[in-house]
Design brief:
CATH topology of the largest domain: MetI-like fold
Oligomer: single chain
Number of domains: 3
Number of strands: 13
Structural class: alpha+beta
Distance between the termini: 55 Å
Helix content: 55-70%
CATH superfamily of the largest domain: MetI-like
Low-confidence stretches: none
Shape: flat
Mean pLDDT: 87
Largest sheet: 6 strands, antiparallel
């Protein structure tokens, strides 16, 4: 028995010394991490993407403790158990028999302009009846959220209009006409009037600049005034066209009956879409779902960011990451090349490396405070004094904006690029350097034409890590450029086209704002999941692109031992 035990112990020791247990342990840890990540992504996807599917709308009759019967129209969001004692403590009168728990349902009733609430809880024991009438209509509005009810009348200029089509068909027909008018109005407002306002502002600043130089009575000032008058005349023409289109769009209204029997008149200019989910086929719901997804990624937000799309946040996130990458890569690579190739490897260099590694662990909000104090107030304020005195006291670059957010994140992520690049430089065989020197190349030529191309995969690895961190940062951006709602994109058709001084929206801050600052938590929760999923997907796409470039560079500059 003792010999068998000794043999077993020797075999166990041999197994441990072989390293196999640690390989299996590492494989288990990696597998667990992958399962958790995939599970998290699936949870976010289900919770977020399911929000856009058109749900059935119920008409529910329920009885209250005063024995009165009420009618509720809305979507059933979820059902959950609730303790009887909790309801009794809240002052509710319930006859639940000997049960300790009962079910309650959260109903999205909309019609916030009438009831003041978007959601309400109904105890299932109080429900007398529920059904899904095919003619219940849901109106998505630009203000006051969704409206649930029945179509009663459609009016044009206070006159009831009739058609051979059904009321629902006539509503969508008139809604398409109104949307066409609003599209024309938006084109005039954003393109034509927006461009005129931009030109008028530039002329005003030129005039102010002449005043500061005591040249207000010169011929240049007269030309500016004549140009201003011509633009203002053109502005009045466009403004008149805009008013006519808006008035024409506001002429058509729909009379809706709400769940309490009230009749509400709603302008079609305030309606985004109208649909009857209970009467839609599966294919119709799929088309609706795809349209909502497209709206989510292509339109501007509305209703305090709880409705509409998030295109400005997507655009702001991508352009900020690209600008950060353009800044951080050359600075990080140059710093790494100097530390590894040129600097004397003494105590000072070691201290610099320690400082760089410590910078990677500094809390991001500290970088935000530094960016606000140095980039915005000091550097931006100095630029305004030197180059934009006519704009003062209104700041141009002396206020948070896209350029300062990108520089702050570049400063935050440059230690990652430096460390990764140094690792790549250290892996280049010394024989390659010696061979280049033997062929007559200078040190600069060797580094530029030989060492850096071979180290480019490591540089791309640092850039990948920098992109992953920068895209998800929120705290520093709140101080140096990100806002809840940006009136215009940093990129447009007005010179200089890319406006680095403008504030912008960001997906990370959008998640924070909708999830924690929204007054309507239930309505915002699905959008938080959907936006989080989109942010993760954007980071994955950016990283995969960088990984693809890195792998190509690795194959191109592969170093063989022979």
């Amino acid at each position: 028995m003792s010999a068998t035990t000794n043999k077993y112990n020797l075999g166990l020791k041999s197994w441990f010394h072989s390293g196999l247990p640690w390989i299996w342990l590492n494989a288990a840890a990696v597998s667990a991490s992958l399962i958790l990540v995939i599970g998290l992504l699936l949870l976010i996807a289900v919770r977020g993407l399911g929000h856009f599917w058109p749900k059935d709308v119920y008409e529910i009759s329920h009885q209250q403790p005063d024995n009165r019967v009420y009618r509720v129209i809305g979507e059933r969001i979820r059902t959950e158990p609730v303790g009887i004692q909790r309801l009794l403590d809240a002052g509710m009168q319930i006859d639940a028999g000997d049960r300790s728990q009962i079910e309650r349902s959260l109903i999205k009733t909309g019609n916030r302009d009438i009831t003041g609430l978007d959601f309400r809880w109904i105890l299932d024991i109080n429900i007398l009846s529920e059904n899904t009438p095919a003619d219940i209509t849901v109106l998505e509005r630009k203000e006051w959220g969704a409206f649930y009810g029945y179509i009663k009348e459609i009016r044009e200029a206070n006159t009831i209009i009739n058609s051979g089509a059904t009321q629902y068909g006539l509503l969508n027909e008139k809604l398409a006409e109104v949307h066409q008018l609003l599209s024309q109005a938006k084109s005039i407002e954003k393109d034509k009037i927006g461009k005129l306002n931009y030109e008028l502002e530039r002329l005003r600043l030129k005039q102010r600049k002449l005043e500061l130089k005591n040249k207000a009575g010169t011929a240049s000032n007269t030309d500016i005034q004549q140009r201003q008058q011509a633009l203002e005349s053109q502005y009045q023409i466009y403004f008149q066209q805009l008013q006519e289109l808006n008035n024409a769009a506001a002429r058509t209204t729909v009379i809706m009956e709400a769940m309490g029997g009230e009749r509400v008149e709603i302008s079609l200019a305030n309606i985004v879409r109208a649909y009857q989910p209970n009467d839609m086929s599966v294919f119709g719901k799929l088309i609706f779902y795809l349209a909502k997804l497209w709206e989510f990624v292509s339109e501007d937000p509305r209703e305090a960011n709880t409705e509409g799309g998030i295109f400005p946040a997507i655009f702001g996130t991508i352009i900020m990451v690209l600008l950060m990458s353009v800044v951080v890569t050359p600075f990080g690579v140059v710093a790494a090349v100097y530390l590894y190739e040129y600097a004397n490897q003494g105590v000072l260099t070691r201290l610099i490396r320690v400082a760089v590694n410590n910078l990677a662990g500094v809390p991001s909000i500290v970088y935000g405070v530094f960016g606000l104090g140095f980039f915005v107030y000091t550097l931006g304020g100095g630029i305004d004094q030197l180059f934009y005195p006519e704009n003062l006291p209104a700041p141009t670059f002396g206020t948070p904006g896209l350029i300062w957010a990108s520089l702050t994140l570049a400063l935050l992520t440059v230690p990652v690029v430096i460390v990764s690049t140094e690792e790549g430089l250290s892996r280049v065989p010394s024989a390659i350097r010696e061979g280049a020197f033997a062929l007559g190349a200078t040190k600069a030529e060797t580094i530029w034409k030989t060492i850096l191309p071979i180290s480019s995969p490591a540089i791309m690895t640092g850039l990948i890590l920098a992109i992953a961190r920068a895209a998800g940062e929120v705290a520093p951006l709140m101080l140096v450029g990100v806002v809840k709602l940006a009136p215009s994109l940093p990129l447009d058709g007005n010179f200089p086209y890319l406006h680095l001084d403008r504030k912008f929206m960001h997906l990370g801050f959008h998640i924070y704002d909708v999830g924690f600052q929204s007054p309507n938590v239930e309505a915002a929760r699905p959008l938080v999941y959907a936006t989080a999923l989109l942010l993760v997907l954007i980071i994955i796409v950016l990283n995969l692109t960088a990984i693809y470039i890195r792998n190509n560079l690795r194959e191109k500059y592969k170093v063989h031992d022979n």
